[in-house]
Design brief:
By secondary structure, the chain is α+β, with helices and mostly antiparallel strands. The protein has 3 helices and 6 strands. Strands 1, 2, 3, 4, 5 and 6 form a 6-stranded antiparallel β-sheet that branches.
């Protein structure tokens, strides 16, 4: 079965998420327009040429979405609630054509006081590009089902 349940996590474990994702211009343009982000540095090449990067910059919330998605099979396949993202940092820009990879390290685990069928998992996630340069980091906390609980547990 894909994904980890609460009992499968150990503090200190690091998961190199197996997939990578190359970001295309269409990805960036559609996501930017879909989310109503009007900053032209994401979709107007003429405008972007006048910025310090001199080219289209990938929408930072697309980077958040992709890195979150890359981490799902390892850290949140069996989560039923995100409790929060803390301190999202973007130490290096992401550009069209970059391939993004990710890894997560388990920071904390604790039983849920209000939901005996779940536990709280906190991870530190890093997204990095094809050159190994970190482009995004954050700490994420989730409620994760315990083994034998959640949708489909009786199957």
């Amino acid at each position: 079965m894909l994904g980890r349940y609460y009992e499968d996590f150990t503090v200190g474990d690091t998961y190199r998420h197996p997939l990578g994702r190359t970001i295309s211009e269409a990805d960036n343009t559609w996501f930017t327009l879909l989310t109503m982000n009007t900053n032209q540095s994401h979709f107007n090449a003429d405008y972007a040429a006048g910025t310090p990067y001199q080219r289209l910059l990938v929408n930072s919330t697309l980077t958040v979405a992709i890195v979150t998605g890359l981490s799902v099979p390892d850290v949140s396949q069996h989560a039923f609630a995100n409790l929060g993202w803390e301190r999202i940092d973007m130490p290096h820009p992401v550009f069209v054509g970059d391939t993004i990879y990710a890894k997560s390290t388990v920071l904390e685990l604790r039983e849920s006081k209000s939901r005996p069928y779940a536990g709280i998992v906190k991870v530190f996630t890093t997204g990095f590009n094809q050159d190994g340069v970190d482009v995004i980091t954050w700490t994420r906390t989730m409620l994760v089902y315990k083994r034998g609980h959640g949708p489909g547990a009786g199957r």
